[in-house]
Design goal:
This protein is mainly alpha-helical. It has one domain. It contains eight helices and two strands, in the order E-H-H-H-H-H-H-H-E-H. A two-stranded antiparallel sheet has the order 1-2. The termini are far apart. The mean pLDDT is 93.
């Protein structure tokens, strides 16, 4: 049976990585609100341009722009995987900031081999489901 548990933080490095991510997210949100067309013009998918097939992350830039504009439902329609990953990343960043100032929140998730395997398969299934969405439903 897969087990996951919260343990004391061994290293602050993963938590402190949230701060550069927050800076990059702030720059992206600022650019998305000032000139979203520039972001859309710079987004290219080699798979779509070369083989005319969308990749699992096609629409990710549009999804991120829609999130920056405060339109989560449109972001979900553009690319559900990127939207959920961005929201999960935002929650992780909020936790990291809180844990930086409240030491009792400094916890890490410890996974046994079964949980790591389940997580890997879950990611593969989500990628395939999102790709199916990109190929057929969008």
């Amino acid at each position: 049976m897969a087990r996951a548990r919260l343990v004391a933080e061994r290293s602050p490095f993963p938590r402190l990585l949230a701060f550069p991510f927050l800076m990059m997210a702030a720059m992206f949100v600022t650019l998305a609100r000032v000139n979203a067309d520039l972001l859309m013009r710079s987004a290219h998918c080699a798979l779509r341009e070369g083989l005319k097939i969308p990749c699992p992350t096609c629409g990710g830039t549009l999804a991120a722009i829609r999130l920056a504009e405060g339109r989560p439902l449109e972001a979900l329609a553009a690319n559900p995987l990127i939207t959920v990953a961005a929201l999960a990343g935002a929650l992780w960043c909020v936790h990291a900031v809180v844990a930086t100032f409240a030491p009792r929140w400094r916890r890490a998730l410890e996974l046994d081999r079964g949980a790591v395997l389940a997580l890997r398969w879950g990611v593969i299934v989500l990628l395939l489901a999102n790709w199916y969405y990109e190929l057929t439903l969008r």
